[in-house]
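// run 5 | inverse folding | seed 20
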């Protein structure tokens, strides 16, 4: 069966306290796409953040002296700079007008993932979910109850990548699938045993869905059908949770931190 990337149409504007699982279940049902066991629903972070009330009015932000100085030096909004500081565990790089930071869960991204595009109204911004894995699991459970089918959910956001131009969709929250498929120890096409071969399956699915989402097309949810997890993957023995946090390399294993 070929892999199909199916946009879910008919998703209305999302606001704080929207029951997102109900909205998505209705949109999937009305679209006649249906949902099948083994499907993967990829949902953009923006509507998750809106439903969870992760929306901030910039007028209510009082910038610190550091935020004011840095914003003035780089022609930035000091309120936005202050929000980036508040949402960050630490600053990775702070130069040339760029703020690369580490967020609460450990994601390394520009501006702490704070986004002004497609916000609720002028003068507001959306923040990343506090716990994208919990968001994905909550959506998965709500959709399972309403649609009667068990399938995976990925919450995504658009990130840049070190030493490469452009941005792609990355998986932030993952529920219902292995985010990393460890193929180490399995044979390649000619029978040679693979060594360190860890496939970031959740990121691949997120990027595939990003092709159909667009930034102005109003398609914040995508069904991926026909993807089959790799068989005989090596089990994870790290003791880490089997969710999106597994995609974050531990600091002790990172050559650049």
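// decoded
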């Amino acid at each position: 069966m070929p892999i199909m990337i199916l946009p879910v149409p008919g998703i209305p504007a999302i606001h704080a306290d929207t029951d997102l699982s109900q909205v998505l279940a209705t949109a999937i049902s009305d679209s006649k796409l249906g949902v099948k066991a083994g499907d993967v629903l990829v949902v953009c972070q923006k509507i998750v953040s809106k439903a969870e009330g992760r929306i901030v009015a910039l007028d209510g932000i009082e910038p610190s002296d550091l935020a004011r100085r840095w914003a003035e030096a780089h022609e930035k909004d000091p309120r936005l700079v202050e929000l980036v500081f508040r949402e960050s565990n630490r600053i990775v790089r702070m130069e040339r007008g760029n703020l690369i930071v580490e967020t609460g869960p450990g994601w390394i991204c520009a501006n702490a993932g704070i986004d002004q595009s497609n916000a609720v109204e002028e003068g507001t911004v959306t923040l990343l979910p506090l716990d994208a894995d919990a968001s994905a699991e909550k959506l998965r459970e709500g959709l399972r109850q309403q649609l009667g089918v068990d399938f995976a959910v990925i919450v995504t956001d658009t990130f840049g990548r070190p030493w490469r131009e452009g941005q792609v969709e990355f998986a932030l929250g993952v529920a219902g699938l292995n985010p990393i498929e460890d193929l180490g120890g399995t044979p390649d096409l000619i029978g040679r045993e693979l060594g360190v071969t860890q496939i970031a399956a959740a990121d691949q699915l997120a990027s595939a869905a990003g092709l159909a989402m667009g930034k102005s097309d109003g398609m914040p949810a995508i069904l991926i059908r026909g993807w089959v997890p790799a068989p005989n993957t090596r089990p994870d023995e790290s003791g880490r949770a089997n969710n999106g946090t597994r995609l974050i390399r531990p600091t002790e294993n990172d050559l650049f931190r």
